Amino acid sequence: MQQKLQQLKTELSKVIVGHEDVIDSLLIALICDGHVLMEGVPGLAKTTLINSLSHALGLDFGRVQFTPDLLPSDIVGAQIYNPKSSEFQVKKGPVFTNLLLADEINRAPAKVQSALLEAMQEKQVTLADESLKLPSPFFVLATQNPLESEGTYSLPEAQLDRFMMKILINYNTKEEEIQIAKRVSNNSNEAINVVINKEDLQTLKAKLNEVHVDLQVEEYIADIIFATREPKSYGLEDLQTFIRFGASPRGTIDLYKASRAKALMNERDYVTPVDVINVVKDILRHRIILGFEAEAEGISTDDIIEKIIQKLPIP
């Protein structure tokens, strides 16, 4: 299966230049049945990335551009009255797909955000008195633009917590940018082949349970989480004023699962502390709520996580 994962990355590299760490994070979330919130400025190939991933996996792809006038029914669907049959018929929304790109999720009001997040959590949609299961797998990549705040509706902390990961996507290097310009100008992107199917994906998910997590590594994961809640207990008194609330139990669960998936992708059947460190920022950066002092001093959640990792002894 590791060979197929490498083939998948090779297929994506036909279209996507760079961003190997982002691709790895997306694959980890997909294997763990998690959802991803991606933050980055416009034009960094977020749509191309998720579309290419769906092609390489042979999965259905859907995209919704979130706007302030969007309604919940525009996402999940609705019951439509058919005058010919005098009956209501279900019209499924774009959420009924395998990979859904929720573009600029913070542009839509709270009701629309809640409709999507409920579907993410329950893996089903209720229309009137009918509950409809969503296709499997169901993976949401939501994006938000960090530059503009006008006309946006920030996701509440409780809803942010339902995303397994928050990935920050940055600009390419100068060499990668030149390569992108050449490819697009010459229209030389190759077609993407299907290299992993739904059955392969299920096999990968099943293999997660075979990845061993040592007791010391489990303690290390728990210590990282508890250090965000009780910094003083871990000799991190200077962080006490910066953190209002630490990571939730969902953070512990997702860090545990993502560490296993990282080990699996590295062709190991056991988790090392390095696996934990490699995924911890993506898992926790949206789950730590900072105080005013941190914002005033320009301290980010990534800075907090980095200090915790540096302070805690690695088993």
Query: Distance between the terminal alpha carbons, to the nearest Å?
Result: 29 Å
Number of domains: 2
Globally, the shape reads globular
Helix amount: 40-55%
Name the helix and strand elements from N-terminus to C-terminus, one letter apiece: HHEHEHEEEHEEEHEHHHEHHEHH
Number of helices: 13
If strands are numbered along the chain, what order do they take across the biggest sheet?
2-5-8-1-9
Annotated CATH topology of the largest domain: Rossmann fold
Q: What kind of sheet is the major sheet?
A: 5 strands, parallel
User: CATH superfamily of the largest domain, please?
Assistant: P-loop containing nucleotide triphosphate hydrolases
Question: Structural class of the secondary structure composition?
Answer: alpha/beta
Q: How much of the sequence is in beta strands?
A: 15-25%
CATH hierarchy, class of the largest domain: Alpha Beta
Estimate the mean pLDDT confidence: 84
By DSSP, the count of extended strands is: 11
Radius of gyration, in Å, reads: 21 Å
User: Can you name the CATH architecture of the largest domain?
Assistant: 3-Layer(aba) Sandwich
The stretches of 5 or more residues where confidence is low (pLDDT under 50) are: none
